[in-house]
UniProtKB/TrEMBL annotation:
This is Gamma-glutamylcyclotransferase. It comes from Streptomyces camelliae. SUPFAM superfamilies: Gamma-glutamyl cyclotransferase-like. InterPro entries: AIG2-like_dom, GGCT-like, GGCT-like_sf. Signal peptide: none annotated.
Amino acid sequence: MTPHPGPPLPFFVYGTLRPGEANHDLFLRGRTTAEEPARLPDTALYDGPGYPYAVDAPGGEVRGELVTARPESYDTLLTALDRLEEYIPGDPRNLYERVTRPVLRADGTTTPAWVYLAAPRIAAHLRATGTRIETGDWLSRG
């Protein structure tokens, strides 16, 4: 995906970028104006090697946070998150694809956000043999 036309989008994070997780402070501390609980409809969450994958799944839901970057940090944060998620536009070796999806806020409103979903080949493998996190919440994985 190419950067979204128009104003910068928030990010929906559901794994190691959530508050209290390993990458939150490394990547988000000081670069955000807001972090709020949110849900990503029509997705399922799968356990990965130390981090999760979200996969399109009608009727499913993933829990996470909607993160709004500081305007002056947006471009560097987008670049840093693409690097963290090993996302390069159009690269068939990607682990994740950065896409826009409607995210549901706690107040019931929706907003478009960037989300890193499992790349198609990873998603197919997870659907076939992966371990689904039934709660849709990485923090409840046990």
